[in-house]
Amino acid sequence: MTIDSSLHPPENYSGRILSSKYSKNLKQRVSELISSSRSIELTGSPVSHYLAAWNENENVIWYEYVPHKVATLLGCQENQNIAVALRNAVLDRRVYKYVDFQESRIAEEVLNKQELSGQRQDLREQGKEKGRIEAVYKIILPDNRVAWLKDQAKIESFKQDQICLSFGVLTDVSKEMEQKDLLERIGYFDQLTRLPNRSIMDRLLDVKIAEFKRGHIKDFSLLMIDADFFKSVNDTYGHLTGDFVLQSMAEIMSATKRKDDEIGRYGGEEFYGLCQGVGKNVLLFAERLRKAISNHDFIYRDQTIKLTISIGVASAHEVENLSRESLIQLADERLYKAKENGRNQVIGE
Fold first, then answer.
1. Active-site residue 32, yes or no?
2. For 207-226, how does the pLDDT look when each residue is reduced to its tens digit (9 = 90+)?
3. Could you say which of 41, 64, 262, 269 is catalytic?
C-alpha cells in the first residue's frame, strides 16, 4: 500500500483538515495550496498568501495556513490564534463597488466592528455564491498602530466534506488608505458628487500653469461648465431631485472624460474640466460632454427630467499674463457668452 506523504500535516501545522477525517480530494487540495503558499513566502513576496476554511454547518472560521509575517503583525505565536486575533483587531470592513452610469463611480460600503460581527455568516455565504471575496480591513495592531489589509480570495466548496476553502492574498495598503482618509479630511472630494472640489482645481491650475511656463507641457485648457436653468429643477421637483441630478451629471461627465482629463465640482450647479491640448480636440471633448448630458434622461421617483449644459473653454496660450485668475476669467466670459447665445452650447477660441 502506497501512502501519499503530501497529505500528512507538515511540520508546525496547526490547521484541522490534514489532521482529521476528510476526503482525499480535500486534503490533496489543502496540501497543494499550503505548498504553493510556502513557496511564495520563501521568495520574499510583499503580499501574503493564506488559506482559511470553514464548515458550512458552523459559524466558525479557521486558518489552515498563514505566513509567519502575518502572525507576527497580529502578535500571534500559533496559527490557531490567527482567526481570533484578526477578528479582535478589525475596526471595520470596507468594500468598493462600481455603481450607476457605465460603472463610472465607486461606492464605499463600510461595516463597523459590531455590524460585521452580526453579518459574518451572511458575508461568507455571499462569497461562496460569487466564488470570491474582496475587501479592505482596517485593523488595530498590538502596538496601537492602525493598518489596512486588502483581502482578495477565491472560494472553493467541497460538498462531500461540507467545507469551504478561502485561498487568498493579504496586501498591506496602509499608505494608500491613509492618503485617501487624509484627502477626505481636508475636503478633496465634494460630498455630494464625490468629485474633486474647487480647492483641488486651484492646486491643479497652479501646477499646470507652472509646467506651461517652464515649457514642460505645450498647452492645456480649462472648461467652465454650468447646468442651464438648474434653479427650475429645484423649484419644480425639490432639492432632493436637484441633488440627484447633480450626482448623475457628475457620473455622466466622469464616464465621458478622457483618461488624462479631470472633472470636478466648482460649486452649486457649476463644474470644471481640465484637459491637455487645445483647439479642435478640446472643443470636441466639450461637445461630447454637452451631448452626453442633453441626451440623458434623469429619472427620479418616476419623474423624467431633461437638462442641458453650457461650456466656456479657455486655453493657456490665449492669456497674455497667465495666472489662475486670468484663465478662469476667460473661461467664465465664454461660459456667459454661451448662456447669452441661447445656452446648450460650447464657446471656445
1. no
2. 889 889 988 888 999 999 99
3. 269
